[in-house]
């Protein structure tokens, strides 16, 4: 777990990247499943409004997690994640979208970027890869939600490209963090996924480990690291948590290991005012 640490406040546990925390200009975190109010099968810190959990429990969970990070939960900006490649440029007009009511979340979007201080971005996941981005030179941030489809579509690279286009970032200045998600130890995929990767990545054989006839283990961590590097992010500026959600259902929600009936963690990031 080099470069990432677990923080605890009461029963609440969340993770932070050292490189992000050192700047002092942003607040960020990845929640775990510990420290909330939700009942089985969303126990305990389910952060998502769209999975069938009681909304009052989710709002209470968000309040606890946001308080630890100095975020107003009413200000959260969330998207309806669709495993795509759309990046939304977020400004003050988006404040609170998806914070209380899922129907107000930004539609059909898997990455958010902003340079507005005090405007917290959020994404929700339970095996998919959460990616945080921070440019300390241009003082702008971003996050992306990357399942295998979003990874193949280059959602992380699209977010970097949009930060360059909108905020004038140099990709070499951007810090990136790849959070807890299903690891290469557990993420078994089939022929359609293998074929999709082979069409996009010339180095696809480095990302897949054969484990049987027409079955492979896919390394989404390395794939997204390579996507970020292809977009110009320096290898030394990328931190990978290397925590597998499927291995650690004591600490994380896992859609695959819990047969789809479970909660979601959140990735959160905000420029301090």
From TrEMBL:
It catalyses: inosine + phosphate = alpha-D-ribose 1-phosphate + hypoxanthine; adenosine + phosphate = alpha-D-ribose 1-phosphate + adenine; adenosine + H2O + H(+) = inosine + NH4(+); S-methyl-5'-thioadenosine + phosphate = 5-(methylsulfanyl)-alpha-D-ribose 1-phosphate + adenine. The keyword Zinc applies. Transmembrane segments: none annotated. GO terms for molecular function: copper ion binding; hydrolase activity; S-methyl-5-thioadenosine phosphorylase activity. Gene3D superfamilies: CNF1/YfiH-like putative cysteine hydrolases. InterPro entries: Cu_polyphenol_OxRdtase, Cu_polyphenol_OxRdtase_sf, Cytotoxic_necrot_fac-like_cat. Keywords: Hydrolase, Metal-binding, Transferase, Zinc. Pfam families: Cu-oxidase_4. Purine nucleoside enzyme that catalyzes the phosphorolysis of adenosine and inosine nucleosides, yielding D-ribose 1-phosphate and the respective free bases, adenine and hypoxanthine. Also catalyzes the phosphorolysis of S-methyl-5'-thioadenosine into adenine and S-methyl-5-thio-alpha-D-ribose 1-phosphate. Also has adenosine deaminase activity. Belongs to the purine nucleoside phosphorylase YfiH/LACC1 family. This is Purine nucleoside phosphorylase.
């Amino acid at each position: 777990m080099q470069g990432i640490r677990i923080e605890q406040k009461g029963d609440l546990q969340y993770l932070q990247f050292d490189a992000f925390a050192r700047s002092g200009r942003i607040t960020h975190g990845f929640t775990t499943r510990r420290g909330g109010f939700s009942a089985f099968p969303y126990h305990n810190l389910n952060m998502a409004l769209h999975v069938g959990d009681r909304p009052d429990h989710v709002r209470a969970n968000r309040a606890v997690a946001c308080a630890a990070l100095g975020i107003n939960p009413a200000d959260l900006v969330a998207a309806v994640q669709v495993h795509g490649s759309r990046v939304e440029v977020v400004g003050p007009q988006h404040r609170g979208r998806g914070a209380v009511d899922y129907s107000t979340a930004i539609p059909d979007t898997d990455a958010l970027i902003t340079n507005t201080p005090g405007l917290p971005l959020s994404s929700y996941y339970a095996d998919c890869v959460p990616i945080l981005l921070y440019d300390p030179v241009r003082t702008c941030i971003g996050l992306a939600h990357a399942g295998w489809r979003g990874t193949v579509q280059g959602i992380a690279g699209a977010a970097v490209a949009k930060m360059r286009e909108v905020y004038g970032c140099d990709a070499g200045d951007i810090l990136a963090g790849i959070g807890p998600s299903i690891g290469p130890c557990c993420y078994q995929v089939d022929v359609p996924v293998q074929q999709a990767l082979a069409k996009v990545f010339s180095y696809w054989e480095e990302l897949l480990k054969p484990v049987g006839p027409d079955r492979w283990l896919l390394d989404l961590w390395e794939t997204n690291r390579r996507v970020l590097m292809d977009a110009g992010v320096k290898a030394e500026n990328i931190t990978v948590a290397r925590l597998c959600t499927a291995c650690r259902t004591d600490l994380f929600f896992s859609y695959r290991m819990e047969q789809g009936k479970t909660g979601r963690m959140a990735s959160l990031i905000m420029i301090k005012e």
